[in-house]
Amino acid sequence: MLDLVAASAFFLLIHFGVSGTRLRDALVAHLGAGPYRGVFSLASLVGIAWLVYAYRHAPVEPLWGLLLGFRPAAYGLVFVAFLFVVIGLTTPTPTSVGMESKLAQGAESVRGMVRITRHPFLWGVALWALVHLILNGDLASLILFGALLVLAVGGTASIDAKRRRLFGEQWSPFAKVTSNLPFAAIAAGRNRLGPAVAEIGVLRALAAIIAYAVAFYLHGKLGPPLG
Length: 227
Description:
Helix content is 66%, strand content 0%.
């Protein structure tokens, strides 16, 4: 279990201790944006591989136990998570790596899922992690999925802070018509759901459905599942 704790700590450290901080700015200035992203991506891949290995080899120590009654709801919630993840990944937004230049477009860059949240991918990961944490009910799952949940939710605030720090006035018009928390801007009247649905379109939704169906089919087929 200590290996899983160490892997989780490493994964959180490289993100909250480097990415989104002034240390990251200094490293980019010294190495260049491309090399920095390469090194950081490699460190992230190592972290993910370490997490998966440690989780699969961690002892099973039940806490509240496997919640079989929660499974039907879990299927629906994970489907929503896939919608956020897939549609988020296929929707250009200034909060994505390499898309920062879109901030110059202001409110014009806000389309589709970005009207719902400016961090759709991370909120999808957060929902996926939360569902798996609740469903499994053991210590290893609490550590792994808890770390991923903290990373995803904390990552939204970290990215906002980084964009605000680096782009200043360019960030404000975009932030005013969007929200970190899903649907908050729509609830506050700063954006609308109708255009978001129309701009997402059928193809993105279909891609999310296919990805969910493939994941559902493969779940548990390739060895012990992650949840």
